[in-house]
Amino acid sequence: MKHHAILILWPSFVIAGIANAVFFTFFDPVDFTLFGPFGLSRLTAYSMGFFILWALAGASSAFTVYLEHARHHIR
Q1: How many other CB atoms sit within 10 Å of the CB of residue 24?
Q2: Per the structure, how many domains does the chain have?
Q3: Helix, strand, or coil here: 47?
Q4: Is the C-alpha dihedral spanning 18, 20, 23, 27 positive or negative?
Q5: What is the chain's Cα-based Rg?
Q6: What is the pLDDT along the chain (75 residues), one digit of tens a residue?
Q7: Angle between the 42-74 and 2-26 helix axes, to the nearest 10 degrees?
Q8: pTM to 2 decimal places
Q9: What phi, psi does 37 have (nearest 5°)?
Q10: CB 20 within 8 A of CB 53
């Protein structure tokens, strides 16, 4: 179980860091508006963006581990 957690969390952490850096290189979080300004500080927006991207990358990694696990049970 610990091995699966490492296989999921570490790569997704690295990808989230890279994606966060690339995304916020092009977009300023203070300028984000949906139904008006969010009023978040830059640090809060960077942190929220990182954790959202980490969750998405983690879901992708978890799905890959699940498919690999399922492949071994089919044989």
Answers
A1: 15
A2: 1
A3: helix
A4: negative
A5: 16
A6: 788 888 899 999 999 999 999 999 998 877 776 655 567 788 888 999 999 999 999 999 999 989 888 776 766
A7: 140
A8: 0.80
A9: -65, 140
A10: yes
